Amino acid sequence: MIKRSGEKLDYGINWADWLDAENDTISTATWIVPDGLVGAGETIRDGVTKGGAPVPKSLPVIFLSGGVDGRDYQVVCRVATEGGRIDEGTLSISVRDRR
């Protein structure tokens, strides 16, 4: 994903298909944000499967701002579910300011 250094936008990882198949929901989500980016406003929203079915508490979201033009960042989200499952996903964020 590409963002500009001056933007503050919400980013998320959708676990709806996996959680729907397991009949589970996310209980906690922990974001690991590298130096250079600023993360805030973490929430867990309802997601949607590829088939369009809503799945409660399946989409952890974080607002990201900052970053250095030309740098690439890996933002990690670790989730734990009500059923005891643990998973980790990564967002690849490239900061590219318009010229």
Question: What distinguishing features does this structure have?
Answer:
single chain, 99 residues, mainly beta, Immunoglobulin-like, 4-stranded mixed beta sheet, 3-stranded antiparallel beta sheet, 7 strands, elongated
Question: Can you describe this structure?
Answer:
The chain has 99 residues and is mainly beta. It has a single domain (2-95), classed as Immunoglobulin-like (Sandwich). Helix content is 7%, strand content 60%. It contains one helix and seven strands; from the N terminus they run E-E-H-E-E-E-E-E. The chain has one helix spanning 16-22; strands spanning 2-3, 8-12, 26-32, 37-48, 54-66, 72-81, 86-95. The strands form two sheets. It has a four-stranded mixed sheet with strand order 1-7-6-3, with no helix packed on it. A three-stranded antiparallel sheet has the order 2-5-4, with helices on one face. Strand 6 and strand 7 (86-95) form a beta hairpin. The protein is elongated, with a radius of gyration of 14 Å. It starts with a strand and ends with a strand. The mean pLDDT is 95.
